[in-house]
Design brief:
The protein is of the alpha/beta class and 506 residues long. It has helices at 65-74, 86-98, 116-126, 163-166, 182-191, 212-219, 243-253, 268-281, 295-304, 321-325, 331-349, 364-372, 382-385, 444-461, 467-473, 481-486, and strands at residues 15-17, 35-36, 40-41, 49-50, 54-56, 77-80, 131-134, 143-147, 168-169, 176-177, 196-200, 206-211, 235-238, 257-260, 287-292, 308-311, 351-352, 355-358, 377-380, 394-397, 400-406, 435-439, 476-478. 31% of the residues lie in helices and 17% in strands. α5 links the parallel β10 (176-177) and β11 (196-200). It is an enzyme of class 1 (oxidoreductase).
Length: 506
């Protein structure tokens, strides 16, 4: 006979936090959101911790190298999507690891033979007033000069005039060698009253530009996720099919952590993948697994050697697994049960395995609820897909700017490995995700800052300055459907007729 759960399967929207005592010391600026990413033993520190409890989903529409750099800057981490060739994914990881904070690879480059018209076109396209000139017009060609808006006047020059005739030549430029630190580069900029400083290799090939404004920006990001070599940290998604080829390439490229990307984690296929990684790399390669929705699934992956475990089936905004297969569980219920299993495992073994709530987050406050219910961090797809830094196109739909967003189970992504159940058959029999648009929301930094300000404020309302303290002190209550309605604007006529969506994130 089938097993029936006595309690209903609940979502985050069915809960509220009840305020607790807030001392005078409990203020938002003193709240720490640092949280473990990978497992550790009692009394030890985790090998990797997040500075903010947010990671980006393993999706084509969300996590590429651009997103990884932007999120690492703020203290989170991206898992670069695995539904691409091994070579392309490894190249994305390598670009993140090669990126030097404050050091910019030029995306607006000129050759001496180009014209003032080309300069104007590049400025209109990229918005940059500083454009290096290289022999071949590439980002890493031999440096021969630079063009800034001080080098030309449109009212007095012909658009056909060659760049070589008005650029500042190389011999009049101040440059820095490759081994220059960001601090030293900034000193050179200030001592010489420069706005930018080219960084060149031993053969005078352009490698990077350092801008005065970028140094200031870098110094204002104390939460940056950096490895021991001061490089940005980055994760990568893998599957249970080609791990023997993909994992070595990603490790060689410098990936700090891996995650098995699957809609169903409670399977031998994930166990086989984890066993292979442990056999070949021991504990040196950190790898998460999932997704699961109950204590049994957690215990299975914990015993198999997972470094963190993801929770959630069918709760994502573009996921239709529940519709198609009738399988899944409310995200709140799943998080509560798995968190309890994690704590019991810790008491039993002395090993703490972080859990990640993946899906089901609709509003900013749901993030706080997930943390209060026991999640160590959350994985977000739609939230990050809305930003400039996501790899999708920004389009105008009926007068509003939107970003394209599609699920890994959609026909567009065709990520059959994520939904693979073994056997020789390869490919998708049916869709488990949709192709859609999400409202464009601007830059990642601005939105993450706003979201986390809400999280910190709510934590103070609960009398907590850390995530573990929140999990210990939190008081949660189930709310009725009427209470949910009462929690928003009601019984008034809004001045702005636009539906209230400003806090909707996933």
């Amino acid at each position: 006979m089938a097993y029936y759960f006595d309690e209903p399967s609940r979502t985050f929207n069915e809960y509220l936090l009840v305020p607790g005592y807030s001392s005078a010391k409990c203020i938002p600026q003193d709240v720490s959101l640092k949280t473990p990413l990978v497992k550790y033993r009692r009394g030890e520190e985790p090998a990797i911790s997040l500075n903010i409890p947010m990671v980006s989903a393993i999706m084509q529409a969300v996590s590429d190298d651009g997103m990884a750099i932007a999120l690492a800057t703020e203290g989170g981490l991206s898992f670069i999507y695995g539904s691409q060739s091994i070579e392309d994914q490894a190249a994305m990881v390598a670009r993140v690891k090669d990126y030097k904070a404050g050091f910019v690879t030029s995306d607006a480059n000129l050759s001496p033979e180009m014209t003032l018209a080309d300069v104007v076109a590049l400025k209109d396209k990229h918005g940059h007033s500083t454009m290096p000139v290289t022999e071949d017009g590439t980002a890493h060609g031999k440096l021969v000069g630079v063009v800034t808006d001080r080098d030309y006047r449109l009212s007095r020059m012909s658009m056909d005039e060659k760049v070589a005739s008005f650029m500042t030549p190389r011999e009049n430029m101040i440059v820095a060698p490759m081994d220059t630190s960001l601090k030293v580069a900034n000193d050179i900029i200030w001592d010489n009253k420069l706005n930018s400083l080219p960084v060149v290799d031993d053969e005078d090939h352009l490698m990077y530009l350092v801008f005065r404004k970028d140094y200031d920006s870098h110094k204002s990001n104390p939460n940056e996720m950096l490895d021991a070599h001061k490089r940005y940290q980055v994760g990568a998604g893998i599957n249970t099919r080609d791990y023997a080829e993909r994992v070595p390439a990603l490790v060689e490229a410098g990936a700090d952590v891996l995650c098995i990307d699957s809609s169903e984690g409670y399977s031998d296929w994930q166990k086989f993948t984890l066993e292979w990684i442990r056999e070949h790399y021991g504990d040196s390669v950190k790898v998460g697994a999932g997704n699961v929705v109950d204590a049994e699934g957690f215990r299975f992956l914990a015993d198999a050697g997972a470094d963190f475990i993801k929770i959630g089936i069918g709760g994502g905004s573009i996921c239709i697994t529940r519709e198609q297969k009738g399988i899944g569980r409310g995200q709140a219920t799943a998080t509560i049960e798995v968190a309890k299993a994690r704590d019991e495992y810790f008491e039993e073994t002395g090993v703490y395995i972080p859990i990640c709530s993946d899906g089901g987050i609709v509003y900013d406050h749901h993030l706080t609820l997930a943390l209060a219910m026991g999640a160590d961090f959350v994985m977000l797809g739609r939230y990050f897909a809305r930003f400039d830094e996501s790899p999708t196109n920004k389009v105008n739909i009926n007068g509003s700017y939107m970003k394209e967003y599609w699920g890994e189970g959609s026909a567009r992504a065709r990520n059959w490995q994520r939904y693979d159940l073994g056997g020789d058959k390869k490919g998708m029999s049916f869709e488990e995700g949709v192709d859609s648009y999400v409202p464009y929301a601007g830059t990642l930094k601005d939105n993450v800052d706003l979201t986390l300000s809400k999280v910190k404020s709510t934590m103070c309302n609960c009398g907590a300055l850390t995530i573990p303290e929140l999990q210990e002190k939190a008081k949660l209550t189930v709310v009725s459907s009427t209470s949910i309605v009462e929690g928003g604007a009601h019984d008034v006529v809004l001045k702005d007729k636009t539906p209230y969506v400003s806090s909707s994130i996933h």
